Amino acid sequence: MSAPFDVTIESGLFFDGMGSPPAPRHLGVRGGRVVAISEAPLPRGPGTRVLDAAGCWVTPGFIDLHTHYDAEVELAPSLSESLRHGVTTVVFGSCSLSLAIGAPEDLADQFCRVEAIPYDVVRRMLEQRKTWSTVTEYFEHLDTLPLGPNVSSFLGHSALRAHVMGIERSLDRAARPTEGELARMEGILREALDAGYLGMSVMTLKWDKIGGSRPIRSRPLPSTYARWSEVHRLCGLLRERGRVFQGVPDAATKVNIVRFLLESAGLVRAPLKTTIISLIDLRADRLVYRLVGLAARLANTWLGADFRLQALPEVFDLWADGIDLVVFEEFGAGAAALHLDDPAARARLLRDPAYRARFRAEWRSRLLPKLFHRDFNQSEILRCPDERLVGKSFARVAEEEGRDVVDVFLDLVAQHGPALRWYTVMGNDRPGPLEEIVRHPDALIGFSDAGAHLRQMAHYNFPLRMLRMVKDAAREGRAIMPVERAIQRLTAEIGDWLGIDAGRLEVGGRADVVVLDPEGIDGEVDRVAEAPVEGFDGVVRLVRRNDRAVRAVLVNGRLAVQDGQVLPEVGTRRGHGQLLRARA
Prior knowledge:
The protein is α/β, with parallel strands linked by helices. 33% of the residues lie in helices and 19% in strands. α10 (257-264) runs parallel beside α11 (288-302) and α18 packs antiparallel against α19 (483-490). The longest helix is centred in the N-terminal third of the chain and has 17 residues, at 179-195. The radius of gyration is 24 Å and the shape is globular.
């Protein structure tokens, strides 16, 4: 056996990511690759870094298949909030959004309100740093960044459509792309696939709105204006190349999920790899996860589809500053409030009796489709200038004051704005259904939205929360799945399906490695804190930190995290993460 190694990881319980039973092994890494997996101790050279993994699990790096790191990777390429939890590969360009192509103002208007990211920061960054004008140049640019984790990307259909048609026409329901514009979209998508993009992402849910200050503000994203014939035509290229179609269905009505299922079908043609969000046990609809899961199973079994539902292995909880929360976009009165950027104008609207009547009617309507539960009993006030209210639900405050709960909520938001911070749970709050979801054969584990909703969600460490769930269930005598299967679901299963070189530990393979202390995978993985966002001018985001769980993380054979801390050179020097291109 050749020596020396750049790194040896000694005496750990080794998981290959492919579902094989774990076994004690020693790993040798050289030149960014795993070059030895041995039962016997490995020789050390004078320059070998030795990591003692006794009592630890040694796994492939985790993959996060749904992020919105498109902006953060430019400002803080370490992407440390994912890396510190063992995520060594991230995918962005999700939900039809992408910074790959388009004018800075158009991209900022599409991206920032949807993903709750500071507009001024992103707009300024794009105006100062955007040197690329084609999808190929964008990938060449990503390849120059001092990345923490590996990155890969979809091409966003909203960005593509706005670039080709012009943003105003792309947001005009009466406008249809000309044959020349459709051909140009095809040409750009073909170029992207040649460059190694994973595929294309689309949006059909009209919640997500344009930001900025132009007259187009508050219109749904460009992708929502496309007829399915436009989407179908572009999917032909994805099917031809074996690439991925990522989509957000119109989950409010749920009807067009059928379109995604049929687009994926492959009875008389090659199946189209299709993935949508999300398989979730919603508080607003306890039946939908079963129906969607059944539809996916039938499509893959009887229609020859290759269809996957993205799923989070944890409670889906939300924090809000005032009314700034994406779920309020799902009904007209909520969207009307979010349309107003000026705090005084918003407060005036919230106090208007006619507006309140509209809000109350829509909030309580049994006819309007909804994903959010709209139940003020399911809330907790976390911070408020009126400290008497902290720890109470809006419903309890209303009961104590003898007033309508909608009036109480709108009064508090109008008075305190973002100084009113509160919490609720969207779904995945029942252990039994959540265990069904993570076991579902057509689920892909991941949907963190990392890099977005900075003040509203904190799902960066979802792999550790998945492992905690499996580990705790086994201790209680409820086997959800073996640990090796859970690790496979977080690594090779995702990498193989996406068609990227990630998620496996094998001789000759990429040395993306995580050393986990199973004793540290405990209740700490659920604890929420706040931390500054590097590069975002003092913006603070929600995080979950569990440093005891992660002993070490290697990306392409280089140590990036030690004892839960991201090393200072990560994100400043090249050599850790790489751009991962889809396999031809």
